[in-house]
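[agent] plan:
  1. take the single chain provided in the ticket
  2. run structure prediction with default settings
  3. attach structure tokens to the ticket
  4. add a short note for the reviewer (M.T.)
[agent] executing step 1
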Amino acid sequence: MIAQSRHRIVLILFGLLLISISYFTARHDSVALITQYILLFSAYAWLLFQKTGWNFKQLIWLGIGFRILLLLATPNLSEDVFRFIWDGRLWLQGIDAYAYLPNDLIKTNPEVSEKLFKLLNSPGYYTIYPPINQLIFVIAASVTSIKGSIIIIRLFILAAEVISLITLSKLIQARNGEAKALMLYALNPLVILELTSNLHFEAFVICFLLLAIYYLDQNKKIKSAVALGLSISFKIIPIIWLATFFKKINLKAYVFFVLVALAIALVTFLPLLQTSIFQGGGASAKLYFQTFEFNASIYYLVREVGYWSKGYNIIQTAGPLISLIGFALIGLYNLFASKKTSISERALWSWFIYCLFATTIHPWYILPMVALSVLTNYKFPLLWSFLIFFTYLGYSANGFSENLWITAVEYISVISFAVFEIIKGRK
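[agent] step 2 finished; step 3 output follows
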């Protein structure tokens, strides 16, 4: 009875902290934000280490319940959702969202919401979100209130998360794992805050990747390829996971698998081929690799060498080059990885390599690894899901200033733990 009471108290505390962070804490209120996250993650860790008889159904409902608590929250750690709604409203007004910068459009189109414009975090950049995302934006923007649009988007995210939890439970059972393993993802604070609360579309990336793994386990290769193609449709970067399926099926089947996945991804682009998707989206993609920098690892080291040798920031040349090296290493890793290495493990390491060589890593970028860690023996993504939240310390009421000491501690800790797990696994 005492143990059960403790669990209830911790679960209530967990829920209250989720509510407090999502509804009442500003991003720039660093002390309150980080203190609450430490307490939230401590509650999560405590639950993980308790010997309790959770079953899969209980954990699925528990995960859903905590996410539903945030149904009415307005994202407070990211303004991306306001660009989602902005794009959706443009399409509904017959305006090509890819063709115009918000800065320019607000001057010539007074019917565009000024209130929404003031909430945008990147009015000087073209939208970069793929067509399948834009469809959800349009559906969300069909209601007049911003809050209503946010709730509609959250319902889509919740649906993806429910599918992820159910699929993960099936994958764990197929691997004879314990139900408690599902808690690693179902109650992970970063997962809940960044997906359900702050509405990042990695929820769909994770959902369809897990389905791709599940269907391959069932030897349903076409369904697996379709699922992976949909994952790519939501955020192009998952295209790196095409390499993870190499050697897991015979060469002929693999070629067909890749073609089906790419065809599905391309089909989702067809409805907007007549728009400015390649001009506007391409311009923003170029900026992503040549201008944006946040919480990077290898790139920051290269940047320092550039400052020392050239006297200026070499991101315009170094950014794309480092990314290309990362993609090449992902290909080489999957080419030489043992045939016995599971899809989950290969997908995890492929995403880790991508993150190490990227110039920008926001907290929600690492979430696919958190999901994949449930299906492998590697748990360093869980440590990362704690440490990466400290990057929010750089925000203030006046803007953002990155603390490179926090970045250094983050990457040294995560990479060290990953190396330790590799050595431990080999022994």
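[agent] step 4 note for reviewer: The chain has one domain: 2-77+148-274+280-426.
[agent] ticket updated
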